[in-house]
Design goal:
The complex is a heterotrimer. By secondary structure, chain B is an all-alpha fold. Chain B is built from twelve helices and two strands. Chain B starts with a helix and ends in a 10-residue tail after the last helix. A six-stranded mixed β-sheet of chain C has the order 6-7-8-3-9-10, with helices on both faces. A four-stranded antiparallel β-sheet of chain C has the order 2-1-4-5, covered by helices on one side. In chain C, strand 7, helix 6 and strand 8 form a beta-alpha-beta unit. The chains are: A mainly alpha, B mainly alpha, C alpha/beta. At the A-B interface, helix 5, helix 11 and helix 13 of A face helix 5, helix 10 and helix 12 of B.
Chain lengths: ~325, ~300, ~250
């Protein structure tokens, strides 16, 4: 009984949060709205990584590839083709999902660290192609000044678009995690041998998880094009992949909203600290060390543990 | 000697040789990484930063000793030692408490270190490009195979590489510490139970691995501009080489470095725009056929 | 029902299983016994597809299942519990069994229905059969060792098996838990009509419930027969007792 009231309380917090987020443009200046958009879509990216990393136990070391590819696909559709821009927003995630399938098929035969390294190799390959193919992708310069439909071109409307798409995406991912597929995915994470032994084709399930994660990373990439009007090669660089991993760690990778929280903290900190010093990397490094030592389950994970302790003691006393 | 050109055109031959000298650097750094990974099971992302620190220290030492030949030789000796000291401090201060943690955590921790080191370099040395001059002894070219000009410094690298390889092999296989380290890699508790201070053995292995990274940095300094960001490109390459060769296997690192270096230089020759794909493609091919690496790994 | 012929498996030159033979009739309870390291778990791994044999065959209900991957073996209605407890640590007791049933019913590709609403009756039924109903919402970290082993069996039951393989089901259990477990195994065979293959070290249990026994020593089958045949078999005595003339027990 106590558990369902916490769930009820958590739902209340989520709704309250959504309402506040909807009202933000009325109170905050333009720059902060831009920042909020970036936080939302990066949080979506981090959550999509956590879908396979935290819930699936897959060592997805180069998730940024799908983000970058989604962004480039959308940007290219919008700048070079005459198709409707809305089609561009759909194509981006699908191409990212497709790439995820292809890379997944290649990497899935390996496990753990080797999976991660092979993914990094393949991802670096994609990065090189994007970086060097000047005539198609603009190379080092990236793509700028992407034309957007009027309805989402102002910062506020871009923000609302991002908010709505992110909320829907997160909702869908949450539903999937609560579904049988989600339970099976977590089972595979904890015990792949046992999962096989109860009749689950582990590799196939993992492949689907990878496609879903890649798809939503592509959504985040498309949103970035909406918010920033650009796409650039560093979106596919491995340092971004590691940064997203850090966001999941910081927020808590066994929780659903942890990565979003981690993204918010890191982006807010980075923006704030960069006004005082150029040594953001130093700060991030030290912050990471503190988190690894003291909060290995992340901020939200720590909070959840505290809440759960409130339940476990009464049970043991029974 | 001209018959060689019948088999291999001069441009290709010279690219191969350049690739091989690049291999030396890659091998030296990767072997250190492989050593740390194989014995201590730490995926040391900060290895690239230590390489960069080695290069910058080489610059400083070179300047300190007048910028000429003496500067280079002092740097060659001093910078690796400097890097070794830095790594010893890091190990005793932090790493030694973390050997039992999960790999993913260790990876993120060493990544945190690389971030910190990166900015420390920025603080100490600033953001401008630095350069270390090639010592007079190695300036200029030598005519190989009857007419092919080849930088003397690269020849120096080609000689240093195998020397380091043999020295490392001797250390790991023939010295007492090397044997203890290999045993401890497999079963730390047993080794400790036999009364050996495993903690210090691990520290020594870690320091030697990092020293190799610093050595790589010093050796590469005269051939490139010493800048920030050196660490990022190199660490990726080093990891891929280590995985390609087999975790913890020194000869594997050599083989991997050979493949990577040659693929890089020949790739650019064949396809100038996308040539740098070749080493990555090579890694992919190797991993698809031999997922655990070309040679036996210690994991 | 199950026929194992000349199964062999080596690891780096060490022959873990050496020409093993086994057959189990429908409805029987068969035990595999042998000294430690005799290869019993390896044999189970070979049958269930976790390992691929170097040579030999495994037939189930006349069909050749040698070398099939584990999930396919499970779909043939062979389920298994593990010697070292092998459950899903972060799920509750209920969820552990539920996943098993969802897998059997091929509902694992369902992305949108909340799992809490699916197969609840079947899950409760199994939990009742094994006696874990009151503990259904506990996370596995809070279970006693004995309960965890029972959960192992419950998960195996989730696959609606016809053939159940139990790897040392009572290992590490306290005496009352052991007695409960034996009752459970007997009822699985009696009430649910399952064919059971298990291995154990405790001879009392083995002779108490097994219809037939197969003895493995150093990876090879040395005898397969009824309890009495095995008790007085010389080779078995050599293996266990070093050649004395006394019948086991």
């Amino acid at each position: 009984m106590a558990q369902s009231t916490t769930r009820g309380k958590a739902q209340l917090w989520v709704y309250a949060g959504l309402v506040i987020l909807f009202l933000l443009p009325l109170i905050l200046p333009r720059f902060y709205i831009y920042l909020a958009s970036i936080i939302l879509l990066t949080g979506l990216l981090a959550t999509s990584l956590n879908f396979v990393l935290g819930y699936g136990g897959i060592f997805q070391f180069h998730h940024a590839v799908f983000y970058g590819v989604g962004a480039y696909a959308t940007a290219l559709m919008l700048t070079r083709s005459d198709f409707s821009p809305w089609l561009g927003f759909i194509v981006g995630p699908f191409i990212a999902g497709l790439l995820s399938l292809v890379m997944g098929l290649i990497c899935i035969r390996l496990s753990k660290l080797y999976f991660g390294m092979l993914q990094i190799s393949l991802g670096s390959l994609v990065w090189i192609i994007v970086y060097r193919w000047y005539s198609f992708t603009g190379g080092d310069d990236g793509i700028h000044g992407v034309p957007l439909p009027d309805i989402i071109s102002s910062p506020n409307s871009a923000y609302y678009f991002t908010l709505i798409v992110t909320a829907i995406s997160l909702f869908v991912m949450y539903k999937i995690i609560k579904s049988p597929f989600g339970s099976v995915l977590q089972g595979i994470r904890d015990n792949p041998v046992r999962s096989e032994m109860i009749g689950i084709n582990v590799k196939r399930h993992q492949l689907l998880a990878l496609i879903i994660a890649g798809f939503f990373a592509g959504v985040a990439g498309s949103l970035f094009v909406v918010v920033d009007n650009t796409a650039f090669p560093d979106m596919l660089f491995w340092t971004l992949s590691l940064e997203v991993l850090i966001m999941c760690l910081l927020g808590g990778w066994f929780t659903f909203l942890g990565p979003m929280l981690g993204a918010a903290i890191i982006i807010a900190l980075r923006t704030f600290i960069s006004t005082y010093t150029t040594y953001w990397a130093l700060v991030l490094g030290v912050l990471m060390m503190l988190v690894i030592f003291f909060l290995p389950n992340g901020v939200l994970g720590y909070v959840e543990e505290k809440i759960k302790k409130g339940f476990i003691e009464p049970v043991i006393k029974e | 000697m001209d018959f060689i050109y019948a088999i291999v055109p001069p441009r290709v031959l010279s690219q191969i040789l350049v690739g091989l000298s690049r291999t030396t650097i890659l091998f030296i750094v990767s072997s250190g990484l492989s050593l740390i990974l194989g014995v201590l099971r730490i995926p040391n992302v900060a290895h690239g930063s230590l390489y960069m620190i080695g290069a910058f220290m080489a610059y400083s030492l070179s300047v300190l000793f007048g910028g000429g030949d003496l500067g280079f030789w002092m740097a060659l000796i001093g910078a690796p030692i400097g890097v070794a000291i830095v790594s010893l401090v890091a190990e005793r201060g932090l790493f030694q408490y973390l050997y039992e943690r999960e790999h993913l955590m260790l990876l993120l921790l060493t990544f945190a270190f690389s971030l910190v080191f990166g900015d420390l370099v920025k603080i100490v040395w600033g953001t401008e490009y630095k350069s270390v001059p090639v010592p007079h002894v190695f300036q200029g070219f030598i005519n190989l195979f009857g007419g092919l000009p080849f930088p003397l410094y690269n020849l120096f690298l080609l000689i240093v590489g195998p020397i380091v390889a043999v020295a490392l092999w001797l250390f790991v296989n023939k010295t007492k510490i090397g044997k203890i380290a290999r045993a401890a890699a497999v079963d730390r508790e047993m080794v400790g139970a036999v009364g050996i201070n495993v903690s210090w053995v691990f520290a020594i292995v870690f320091v030697i691995g990092c020293l190799l990274a610093g050595l790589g940095g010093v050796l590469v300094a005269p051939t490139v501009s010493v800048t920030l960001g050196m660490d990022h490109t190199l660490i990726m390459e080093a990891f891929l080489i280590v995985i390609m060769g087999g975790l913890g296997n020194i000869w594997g690192a050599l083989l991997g470095a050979l493949i990577f270096g040659l693929a890089q230089s020949l790739g650019i020759l064949i396809w100038s725009q996308f040539g740098i794909i070749f080493p990555y493609a090579a890694v992919i091919v190797v991993l698809l056929f031999r997922p655990t690496g070309l040679l036996k790994s210690t994991w | 029902m199950l026929e194992v012929k000349s199964l062999s498996k080596s690891f780096d030159g060490f022959k873990a299983v050496n020409n093993a033979n086994l057959d189990v009739q429908k409805g029987e309870i068969v035990a595999v016994i042998g000294p430690n390291g005799a290869g019993k778990t390896t044999l189970f791994n070979l049958i269930t597809g976790i390992l691929r044999p170097d040579s030999g065959t495994v037939h189930f209900k006349g069909e050749n299942i040698t070398g099939l991957p584990p999930y396919k073996v499970c779909r043939k209605r062979i389920s298994r519990s593990f010697q070292v407890v092998n459950i899903f640590p972060r799920l509750t007791v209920f969820e552990n069994v539920q996943v098993s049933i969802l897998s059997r019913e091929k509902k694992t590709w369902n992305l949108f229905t909340p799992s809490s609403k699916l197969v609840t009756d079947e899950t409760s039924q199994i939990l009742e059969n094994v006696g874990l109903v009151e503990k259904r919402d506990r996370t596995t970290a809070l279970l006693s060792h004995g309960d965890r082993k029972v959960l192992e069996i419950a998960m195996a039951l989730g696959g609606d098996p016809e053939f159940l393989i139990l790897d040392e089901p009572t290992a590490g259990m306290a005496p009352e838990e052991t007695a409960r477990c034996i009752e459970l195994v007997k009822s699985l065979s009696g009430k649910l009509g399952l064919t059971i293959l298990f291995c154990e070290h405790d001879m009392e249990i083995v002779f108490g419930i097994a219809d037939r026994i197969m003895v493995m020593v150093r990876g090879a089958t040395i005898v397969q027969g009824s309890c009495d045949e095995v008790r007085c078999n010389e080779a078995v005595q050599d293996a266990y007792l070093g050649g004395s003339d006394v019948c086991l027990m």
